[in-house]
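User: Teach me something about this protein's shape.
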Amino acid sequence: MKTLRLLQSLAVALAGIALASPALGQSTAPSDEWRFAVTPYLWLPNINGTLKYQVPSGGASPEVGLGPNDYLSNLKFALMLAGEARKGRWGAFTDLIYLDFSGQKSAVKAVDFLSVGRDRVTSQIDAGTQSSLKGTLWTLAGSYTAIDTPEWTLDAFAGFRYFDLQASTNWQLALAVNGPNTGVVFPASGSISQSETLWDGIVGVRGRIRLGSGNWSLPYYVDVGTGSSTVTWQGLIGVAYGFRWGDVVLAYRNLYYDQSGDKLVQNVRLGGPALGVTFRF
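Assistant: First, the predicted structure itself:
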């Protein structure tokens, strides 16, 4: 029923109109007048990665692997909206995503024991670990149109990406894990929660390759950044059809984060298809 409601909502949103995010769509030739675009869209990523919860004083905490997961069956709420403003060759765009997942398929990969290290946990003793994730992703960047020809366009941009994540895991193991020479025991079942906020500067390029003289084109986008993260990058490739009022785009989008040390987000990848409509005015 949840899948059916989501598909029905999408069908209504797409009736007679179409979408694309700033990463999915691109303005036409530069103009000295202000031009704007608003983009609601739907992105259906699978989530894979590793979460490393901090060790409480005197206790033990799990390192949890995420995925692979079925996006539609785990999604509780999603909001995806993008906007763009341009004047001449200069522009700015923003992209806001809020996702709320529950019942994410997970597995305890290791257990950290304070001042001792960690014990690996084999997948055979996992008996149904699940995680819930709530996250806000916000991108804001300024751009400059470096190339604009009848065949293709290219914008260079710089800005930042904000990622606020709240994670919780309910673990179920077939047996408890004993700490090495500590007397500390990691119980067979329990729960843990933690949040983390990442700020990363990003640079990248985006644009489109036009297919002949018709309305079809291939939008592309790539960025890379660092800051709170060791590295983060995002890429997109798609196919678009243009109308007078905007574009319809179908694309594949991938977002990746990597950190080291005792950070909650060790590595997380969100990848999947995106469908959207851009309204220009």
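Now, about its shape. DSSP finds two helices and 15 strands in the chain. Residues 2-14 form the longest helix (13 residues). If you'd like, I can walk through any region in more detail.
User: That's plenty for now, thanks!
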